[in-house]
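Input (structure):
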């Protein structure tokens, strides 16, 4: 069974940057479409960004367009989320999601806190 482990979260000041990583164990990572989601306290989980299995197609939530970039390295079984110009409202637990046919997997999440 494949596992996904996020890293790279932390505390950053407004306007700062963080790079999240989601590393997959096992093989055949390249068949999964990947996404990043986030959930802030008291709020529902929301989609942040998605990337196709080949990396050729990406989509972003309006709230992060122009600030966040999703990418993937299929040779190293990793998907990234580069987050720039961070705002306090970006504070949340960020989780990666993998989908292939009817299979869906989640990582455990990593906390991102944007605060001065």
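Output (sequence):
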């Amino acid at each position: 069974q494949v596992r996904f482990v996020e890293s790279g979260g932390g505390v950053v000041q407004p306007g700062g940057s963080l790079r999240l990583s989601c590393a997959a164990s096992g093989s055949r990572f390249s068949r999964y479409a990947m996404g990043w989601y986030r959930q802030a306290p008291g709020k529902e989980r929301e989609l942040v960004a998605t990337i196709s299995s080949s990396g050729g197609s990406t989509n972003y939530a309006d709230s992060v367009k122009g600030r966040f970039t999703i990418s993937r390295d299929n040779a190293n079984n990793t998907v990234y989320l580069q987050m720039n110009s961070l705002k306090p409202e970006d504070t949340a637990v960020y989780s990666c999601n993998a989908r292939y046919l009817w299979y869906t997997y989640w990582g455990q999440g990593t906390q991102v806190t944007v605060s001065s």
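Notes: Residues 17 and 82 are 8 Å apart (CA to CA). The chain has a mean pLDDT of 96.
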